[in-house]
Amino acid sequence: MMAPVCKLREFLRYLGEASIRYARESLYAAGYVFEIHKRTFRFLRHIQPKYGYRVFIMQMLFTGFEALWIIAVISLALGALIIIQGRSLLIQVGQGTLVYPILIMVITRELGPLLTAFVIIARSGTAMATELGYSVVSHEIEAYVSFGINPIGYLIVPRFLGVTVSMVILNLYFNIFGLLGSFIVTQFIKPLQMNEYVDNLLSYLTPADVFSSLLKSFIFGAIIACTATYYGFRVERSPTEIPQMAIKAVSRSFILCILADAAITLVYYI
C-alpha cells in the first residue's frame, strides 16, 4: 500500500513543480514581450541614428532582401501549380473560374503569410537566437548592463522592428509573385488571356483578404522576433546551450505562428 501512495505523492509533487515552473516562465515571457513593446514605442519616438537605425537596416537586409529569391521561387511554383492543376480539374466540371478564389484563398489568406513566416523562422529566427546566445556566453550582455545600457532597447528593439517590417514586405512580395508572377510561368505550359486573368483575379480579391494577409504577416513577424530573442537570452553559461535554445526558438515559433494563423482564420470566418 505504501508504494502506490509514495508514487502518487511523487507524481503530484512533480506535477505541482512543473505547473509552478511553467507559470513562472509564462509570466517572465509575458513581461519580456511587454518590455519589448514598451521599448519599441520609445525607440520610434526617439530613434537612435548611430546604432539602432543601423541595426534596423542590417536586420531588414538580412531578413528581407536576402530572402527575396527564396520567396520568389516558392510563390511562383505555388501559384503556377494552383493555376495549372486547379484550372484543369475545374474545367472538367464547368467551374473553371473557381480557380481564382482558390488562388486568392490559398496564397493571400493562408499559405502566403505562413510560408513566408516559415522562411523567416528558418533563417532569421535561428540566426538571432544563436547570435544572442553567443553574446550571453561571451558576457557581452553583462557588459551592456554594467554600462547602464538596456540590452532590450539596444539589441532587441531594432531587430524586432526589422523582422516585423520585413515580414510584411515579404508577404506582399509573395502575394504579387504568387498571383501575378505565376501567370508568366503558366504561359509556357498552358497559356491564358492576360485580361481575363487579371479581371477575374481582381473581381474575387476583396479588401478583407488583403487586410487578413497583412494582419497575419504583422503578427507572425512579432511572434518570430520575440520568440527568437527570448530563447537567445535563455542561454546561461555553456556554448552547448546555444543550439538547444535555437532549436527551441524555431519549434516554438512554428507552433505559435500556426496557432495564431488558426485563430485569425477562425475570427475571419465567424
For the CA atoms, what is the radius of gyration? 23 Å
**Portion in helices:** over 70%
Total helical segments = 9
**Most strands sheet:** none
Task: Supply the number of structural domains.
Answer: 1
Determine the oligomeric state from the structure.
single chain
Principal-axes geometry comes out as globular
Alpha-beta content class: mainly alpha
What share of residues are in beta strands?
under 5%
Average pLDDT confidence is 82
Topology:
Elements: H1 2-45, H2 52-63, H3 68-92, H4 99-137, H5 140-146, H6 151-187, H7 194-204, H8 207-233, H9 241-269
Helix pairs in contact: 1-6, 2-6, 3-4, 3-6, 4-6, 4-8, 4-9, 6-8, 8-9
Kindly describe this structure.
The chain is mainly α and 270 residues long. The chain has one domain (49-269). 86% of the residues lie in helices and 0% in strands. The longest helix has 44 residues, at 2-45.
Keywords:
single chain; 270 residues; mainly alpha; 9 helices; 86% helix; globular
Short description:
By secondary structure, this protein is an all-alpha fold.
